[in-house]
Amino acid sequence: MIRMVLVAVCLLSLHLSTAFAAADPVKSAKTVEIYVTDWCHYCRDAQNYMKSRGIAFTAYDIEKDSAANRRYIDLGGGGVPILVIGSKKMYGFSKERFERILKSEP
Known about the structure:
This protein is α+β, with helices and mostly antiparallel strands.
């Protein structure tokens, strides 16, 4: 009897965690691109934050990739990181602003 209750609780817990993960707007963002340099600690902070939250992203090093550097300049350049979240841009990195943008992107 206790075993059946524990199994039921585990299954319910798994179901709820899956349902909440699917509803999490942070994990449902369409695309996240980040333009970085290897010496920028804000760039590392942003990438580490996204990794810790399970947010898929693509990083482009603007000093090692000339095509990425051209896109970076087209985005306005001027500093790193630049994040492109769906159709929105973010210059610099702040967890709070990043979360707001993710939640506002369809």
